[in-house]
Specification:
There is one protein chain. This protein folds into two domains: 192 residues, Tetratricopeptide repeat domain (Serine Threonine Protein Phosphatase 5, Tetratricopeptide repeat); 81 residues. By secondary structure, the chain is mostly helical. Helix content is 79%, strand content 3%.
């Protein structure tokens, strides 16, 4: 009888140890894949871990982690699907879900949707998580062009967030329409947007083609005149469109600079050494 009881206990111990060892091996594998930058591979492993684990809390963590890696890999549709599965388990804090949804929305060029998710995260989060959420919310509102909402959110955040948002909203963007009109004078549209090298290049090239047109006309070289006129028309129209594009680029650079200033030192990053618990870091 004693031998039978001992054998059963031994079998239970062996089974439990084997499961724990297998889980530890799986976690080491997924950490190694992540460290190597194999985002798709780590996402597959996280999904497998979620499907093979009976614990709802662990499943939610693994589905969230798989969604995170797919987001980093640029597979936004599948990331959304796996994040839905993590949310259905109702085992994670709301801000951990909405923060990743916000990042996904930004990556899909939906800043208005992203601002909504970051606002939701900020309401539920504390400390660094709340600070990160507010910064991302202001950035998303600026990207969507909602300056008034960005200023209101920045006032709630205070500190350098408010300063950066105020500096951006008080600054002046370039008008693409005005840039195009100024481009009627070769180089002036580029200069208006601060692209002085392009402005100088436009002036030189247009000047050379106009000089060539005059020279060939004076020498009755009409074939050369026709060719130079065609190329000059191309460069001249390029100066006009270039003024428009340069203004757009100026505005994008200004926006990117504000976004970078808002999120400098901040990033959503899970700590996989804490698995199967989900621990997120927001600052480095």
């Amino acid at each position: 009888m004693r031998n039978s009881r001992f054998a059963r206990c031994l079998l239970v111990w062996i089974a439990t140890t084997s499961v724990a060892f297998a889980a530890d091996v799986d976690l080491r594998l997924v950490r190694e894949l992540t460290a190597e930058g194999d985002l798709a591979g780590s996402a597959i492993e996280f999904r497998r871990l979620a499907l093979s684990n009976p614990d709802a809390d662990a499943q939610a963590v693994y589905f969230w982690s798989a969604a995170f890696e797919l987001w980093r890999a640029g597979d936004f549709s599948r990331a959304d699907t796996l994040l839905d599965r993590a949310e259905d388990l109702q085992a994670l804090p709301n801000h951990e879900l909405t923060l990743l949804r916000g990042e996904l929305a930004l990556s899909r060029s939906a800043p208005g949707e992203a601002a909504f998710f970051f606002e939701s995260a900020a309401r539920d989060a504390e400390g660094d998580a709340r600070d990160f959420s507010l910064r991302k919310q202001v950035a998303a509102q600026l990207i969507s062009g909602d300056r008034e909402a960005a200023q209101r959110t920045a006032m709630a955040a205070g500190g350098d967030v408010e300063r950066i948002a105020n500096e951006y909203t008080r600054g002046r963007s370039k008008s693409p329409t005005l840039g195009g009109w100024l481009g009627l004078v070769p180089g002036l549209g580029y200069a208006y947007a601060g692209e002085y090298a392009n402005a100088a290049r436009s002036v030189i090239l247009n000047g050379l083609f106009i000089w060539g047109m005059v020279e060939t006309a004076e020498r009755d070289q009409w074939g050369g005149f026709a060719a130079l006129t065609f190329f000059e028309f191309t460069w001249y129209s390029g100066s006009i469109y270039g003024g428009v594009d340069a203004s757009h680029r100026y505005n994008q650079r200004r926006l990117k600079k504000a976004e970078a200033a808002l999120t400098a030192g901040y990033a959503l990053q899970p700590d996989y050494t804490a698995l199967p618990a989900l621990q997120l870091r927001y600052r480095w």
